[in-house]
Design brief:
The protein contains 17 helices and no strands. Helix 3 packs across helix 5, helix 9 runs parallel beside helix 14 and helix 9 packs across helix 15. The longest helix has 29 residues.
């Protein structure tokens, strides 16, 4: 584990500061929006801007990398995010903030893609799981530390915004000074949504609803805490609890999914998250330590769900299909994330601050009910045919999900790839040879032709 992480120390060092800045920024803007008197719906629009930018960035940045390389792209995007955060206190206008959040989301998507490309390049069959575990811990730990920093300075001042800019600028240094060769471009072909749904309806619907839930959870958590009456210090601890819960529960839940029917583990986890959200709604009036515990449990049960959806989907795909399906799952998560902040904003405007938790409970319950429906439609996958669970961060990109040893890309010796260097995509199978699995066919197995 230590040697595997040591081979990519610059990546983890830089990523830690990126996530600290991201965790602080998400909490800070929610609090500052309330201090500036923005209404709830407008705050939801502002927070949605980040996820719009992230979705756009996950599609656009790979082509930028192809043209200018990883290092230049990373430096440019880090500079972009460092600049955009400073514009927020300079121009206090909701539409300016929305535009800046969009650019921030695009920038962070690119930073993750570059960082994960590096991780993919360093991974081997023996170290892949260890590196992903360290990556997930770094992501969650950095975001938790960033949320805790919210109490370090007055949100109404310039200081926290400057601190985020400094963190983003500092994160660039180890990446730019590293002597390691840049990774090769990894640009797998996408898998169609219909084909993926036929293979795994629960994976597709789950990815969409998890994206909605998590954007609602993290995008509007600070807004809820402020409206509920938390102090700035209490808000920072409140948000940090969700990340701590994820760090504690993600791996145990994942291991259970390798032992039992993965759909059953996903269903139980989803309903546990819904119960934690209901507890949060009922405890809002108390504002004591029990509410912090409820937040921690919700984060702990909610954050493994994306990884469970990926693992369940991969159980019904061949290795080559997994890489192509990953981009589609990421797209679904991004699309789902667009509605989360707006749903929370409308819910809080309608029934009060506790509407934040009720919205989370409804979304989690909907996913749990759909999982129960799918269990009734298809028998469990035999345990010896299930893939191994791999924890994936809650802000996935196509590169994260493409960490797959089955795909061989051309050797470049560090040279920059051009479009002509990329491998030709495999031809699509004929209609009679499709390998997608019928959602309701109990006998089909991955890689086998569909029955006529």
């Amino acid at each position: 584990m230590i040697s595997a992480v040591g081979s990519a120390w610059a990546l983890f060092f830089g990523l830690a500061f990126i996530m600290i800045g991201n965790g602080l920024q998400g909490a800070l803007l929610g609090v500052r929006a309330e201090l500036e008197g923005f209404d709830g719906v407008m705050t939801g629009v502002i927070m949605t801007g980040y996820f719009v930018g992230f979705l756009v960035g996950s599609r656009v940045v790979p082509y930028i990398i192809l043209r200018v390389g990883h290092v230049r792209c990373f430096a440019a995007l880090a500079s972009l995010t460092s600049i955009t955060i400073l514009i927020h206190p300079t121009f206090v206008d909701p539409w300016v903030w929305t535009a800046m959040r969009l650019l921030t989301g695009l920038g962070y998507a690119g930073l993750y893609i570059v960082a994960e490309s590096w991780l993919n390049d360093r991974a081997t069959n023996e170290t892949r799981g260890q590196l992903l575990a360290a990556y997930m811990i770094t992501m969650l730990g950095g975001a938790a530390a960033g949320s805790l920093l919210l109490g370090a300075a007055e949100p109404s001042s310039f200081v926290p915004f400057i601190l985020i800019s400094v963190l983003m600028s500092f994160a660039v240094i180890p990446i730019l000074l590293s002597a390691a060769p840049t990774p090769a471009v990894d640009q797998p072909e996408a898998m169609s949504l219909l084909r993926l749904y036929r293979a795994s309806p629960l994976g597709v619907v789950g990815a969409f609803l998890v994206g909605t839930t998590q954007s609602l959870f993290f995008g509007m958590g600070a807004v809820y805490a402020t409206r509920a009456g938390f102090s700035v210090a209490e808000t920072s601890i409140f948000m940090m609890g969700a990340f701590v819960g994820g760090i504690i529960l993600t791996w145990p839940i994942g291991r259970l999914s390798d032992i039992f029917d993965r759909r059953l583990v996903l269903t139980v986890t989803t309903f546990c998250a819904a119960l934690a959200a209901i507890a949060g709604a009922l405890l809002t009036a108390r504002l004591d330590w029990m509410l912090f515990v409820a937040m921690g449990f919700f984060g702990g049960f909610n954050q493994p769900l994306y990884s469970l959806c990926i693992a369940h989907t991969n159980d019904f795909l061949t290795p080559k299909q997994m890489v192509r399906a990953s981009g589609t799952l990421v797209m679904l998560t991004g699309l789902g994330s667009l509605g989360g902040p707006l749903i929370a904003a409308q819910s809080m405007e309608t029934i009060g601050p506790w509407g934040y938790f009720w919205a989370l409970a409804v979304l989690q319950t909907a996913l749990g009910l759909f999982a129960l429906y799918r269990i009734s439609r298809r028998p469990a996958r035999p345990l010896d045919e299930q893939g191994v669970y791999v924890a994936v961060p809650t802000t996935p990109t196509p590169v994260t999900a493409s960490l797959n040893p089955e795909i061989d890309w051309p050797e470049t010796d560090g040279a920059q790839l051009t479009p002509d260097d990329l491998p030709e995509p495999e031809p699509a199978p004929d209609e009679g040879e499709a390998v997608a699995i019928d959602a309701d066919d109990e006998d089909d197995r991955p890689g086998e032709p569909l029955k006529a």
